[in-house]
Write a structure and sequence with these properties.
Blueprint lengths: L23 H32 L2 H28 L2 H25 L4 H30 L4 H29 L2 H20 L15 H13 L2 H17 L6 H8 L4 H25 L5 H21 L3 H27 L7 H14 L1 H15 L3 H19 L8
Helix pairs in contact: 1-2, 1-4, 1-5, 1-6, 2-4, 2-13, 2-14, 3-4, 3-6, 4-13, 5-10, 5-12, 8-12, 8-13, 8-14, 8-15, 9-10, 10-12, 11-12, 11-15
Length: 414
């Protein structure tokens, strides 16, 4: 059985935390992402609060989450085939333009006072379809910007960038919600996509033309599935991602209701909770970027997988705001440890020719199955109350224990 050799630690320790930023293309990418992702998180906060105000229902929060993520379940496997056959930069420009237009449509509906929940659901489905191509393309595009040697560090910095926007966006989104309303959040998000589009067009890439693909798209899809199935470590990592995204982070679906009913706050409290989780995620990504190449990725992943559900259980049982903010910070740290390490361990064990297809399966597990968790949480919270997050914690912990027991070599991955 032929398999790609894992990447080793880079020579030397200089610029160890931010060494991937020595690449001009990655500098441009990070700069554009910092602006755009702040807007994206701002829209996420505003959309959740808008839906909750329009409907007053946790079920509808779950339905919107389901609608936004279900396209990934249907499209992501095929998106990987497209990624491995086309120019990734051109594909990313197309997805950013589409996302920008969808944000402007939602802003126009909200400004006009015509917006209804079904509008948000339809636009969420459209954005979910766009993200089914955008997310795996961004993951696979990283190696084109920095090369294989700096790939692990770039993945961690990319995660750090993603969650830096998660700090600024929700805080600003909560402030704007309380002052000028959700429509401005959607409009500003639309404008923020221009930063990514400009950064992508400004890159100078030396990528050889893809050879003409003789296999059909169906054959390519099948070969990607077979390739993944033959590697136990890849299977286990994708299975971990599936359970973590479906149950571990599904609590965020009912976070607006949690901020209102349990912590007795409003939009600002909701924004603070999300911002603290984002701050924790940036901290986690910084730690991985600095120390993640020392040969202990498997051990760190195991520790995070065991501790995250425990913190989530405590968060579910808490009604004190300061403690809730601290626990949200810890949830952010644990989330980012798992999110970044799963991504890194997958990308450093996959051949370049299969990268798009494997990362599309990763997108499928992270986003494709999460709508079922979102819908389940929204529905159960109506009958069991918001402490349903405690049940999520138990499921997440149990699944992690079983996966590490069945695939013990995961703990030894460098």
């Amino acid at each position: 059985e032929q398999r790609a050799a894992p990447l080793g630690a880079p020579a030397g320790r200089e610029l160890k935390t931010f060494r991937a930023l020595r690449h001009r293309n990655f500098q441009l990418y990070v700069g554009g992402q910092l602006v755009s992702l702040a807007g994206t998180w701002m829209q996420s906060i505003a959309q959740g609060w808008l839906v909750y105000q329009l409907s007053g229902s946790e079920v509808m929060l779950g339905v919107v989450g389901f609608a936004g993520a279900i396209p990934a379940f249907l499209i992501s496997p095929w998106a990987g085939v497209v990624i491995d056959r086309t120019d990734k930069r051109k594909l990313l420009v197309a997805t950013q333009v589409a996302s920008m237009l969808l944000a402007f449509v939602l802003a126009a509906l909200t400004f006009s006072g015509l917006v209804q929940v079904w509008h948000v659901i339809v636009l969420a489905v459209c954005l979910g379809a766009v993200n089914s191509f955008d997310s795996p393309t961004r993951q696979a595009f990283v190696v084109d910007m920095v090369g294989r040697d700096d790939l692990p560090n770039a993945i961690a910095l990319n995660s750090m960038t993603f969650n830096a926007g998660r700090i600024v966006g929700p805080a600003l989104g909560g402030l704007l919600l309380a002052t000028v309303g959700s429509a401005w959040c959607f409009a500003i998000n639309g404008l923020s996509f221009l930063a990514v589009i400009v950064s992508l067009l400004a890159m100078r890439l030396n990528i050889t033309a893809k050879p003409r693909e003789e296999a059909s798209p169906w054959q390519q899809l099948k070969s990607g599935l077979v390739y993944t199935a033959r590697h136990p470590e890849l299977r286990a990592l994708l299975l971990m991602a599936l359970f973590f995204s479906t149950f571990g982070i599904a609590y965020m679906t009912v976070l607006p209701a949690f901020a209102d009913r349990v912590l007795h706050g409003g939009a600002t409290t909701y924004g603070l909770l999300t911002s603290m989780a984002g701050l924790g995620a940036v901290t986690g990504a910084f730690i991985v970027a600095t120390y993640g190449d020392r040969g202990y990725r498997g051990r760190i992943l195991f520790t995070a997988a065991m501790l995250f559900p425990i913190v989530l259980g405590l968060f579910a049982l808490n009604s004190n705001l300061p403690l809730g903010l601290f626990l949200a910070y810890l949830l952010g740290v644990g989330f980012m440890f798992q999110f970044t390490l799963l991504n890194t361990l997958l990308q450093t064990r996959v051949e370049d020719s299969m990268r798009g297809r494997v990362m599309s399966l990763y997108t499928l597990t992270i986003f494709g199955f999460s709508p079922f968790g979102n819908l389940l949480v929204g529905t159960l919270s109506e009958s069991l109350g918001l402490s349903v997050a405690l049940l999520l914690a138990i499921i997440t912990l149990t699944s992690a224990v079983v996966i590490f027991w069945k695939t013990p070599q995961l703990r030894r991955l460098p």
